[in-house]
Amino acid sequence: DSGVTQTPKHLITATGQRVTLRCSPRSGDLSVYWYQQSLDQGLQFLIHYYNGEERAKGNILERFSAQQFPDLHSELNLSSLELGDSALYFCASSVTGGGGELFFGEGSRLTVL
Amino acid sequence: AQRVTQPEKLLSVFKGAPVELKCNYSYSGSPELFWYVQYSRQRLQLLLRHISRESIKGFTADLNKGETSFHLKKPFAQEEDSAMYYCALNPSGGSYIPTFGRGTSLIVHP
Q1: Cα B74 from Cα B55, distance rounded (Å)
Q2: Cβ separation A2–B100 shorter than 8 A
Q3: pLDDT at A2 over 60
Q4: What's the number of CA atoms in the CB half-sphere (13 Å) around residue A16?
Q5: Which CA distances in Å does A72 have to A6, A99, B84?
Q6: CA-CA distance, B65 to B88, in Å (whole number)?
Q7: What is the pLDDT, as a whole number, of residue A32?
Q8: Residues of B with Cβ-Cβ distance to A45 under 8 angstroms
Q9: Which of B74, B70, B64, B65 is nearest to B86 (CA)?
Q10: How far does the CA of residue A68 sit from the closest CA of chain B (Å)?
Q11: Running DSSP on this structure, what letter comes out for residue B13?
């Protein structure tokens, strides 16, 4: 078990709504990464936090936001949801802010109806 | 910006056949390259990394800087190798964005 936990595992909601996905990294890991995996797409990088600070941002929509808290858990907020936001959202953690292995959670599957 | 390309979406082989999953990358510096694997109903996990130069579950991958490739190979595929495989690149500097390919689904038939 990699120790990265994500909640909820599954989430079904309607267009226009807002959801929050939560990620707890492995004990001792300072970095948290968020990825989106849509149908037939690879892992699209969204955002990276290291020890509470944003380190890098990918093609993350303005409707999406994230933060990493002092206890190092992270939340990804998705608002004004659209059908196309339906995807599997992965969180990964690593010890450092650059280089090395990523440890993944099981993902949160979001379905927007 | 870096890019990872896995040209095959699906690779289907029979048990005992050799398998090669292709990965090409685009990056101006010296990247760190990985293969991750996701077995059915399991989370994505590291299979191997180029700096280790080790064989994991019979798989090997050699970094070819001239061809900017990091293909994953196994001489004799097993049914339990059936999984989704992702090639990934960690840049050596700048904004740290681990980049993944789209993945190749390997199916090994009995």
Answers
A1: 9
A2: no
A3: no
A4: 0
A5: 13, 19, 29
A6: 15
A7: 95
A8: 97-100
A9: B70
A10: 17
A11: E
B40 to chain A: which residues are within 8 Å by CB? none
CA-nearest residue to A98 within chain B is B96
- Do B49 and A99 make contact, defined as CB atoms within 8 angstroms? no
Q: Residue A36's closest CA among A107, A98, A101?
A: A107
> Which of B15, B24, B35 is CA-nearest to residue B82?
B15
Q: What are phi and psi of A27, to 5 degrees?
A: -60, 125
Beta bridge partners of B100: B88
Q: Which of A43, A45, A94, A104 to mutate to test the interface with B (most CBs of B within 10 A)?
A: A43
**Which chain B residues touch A33 with a CB distance below 8 Å?**
98
B58-101 pLDDT per residue, tens: 999 988 989 999 999 999 999 999 999 999 998 876 667 889 99
Burial label, A13 (beta-carbon count in 10 A; 0-12, 13-18, 19+): middle
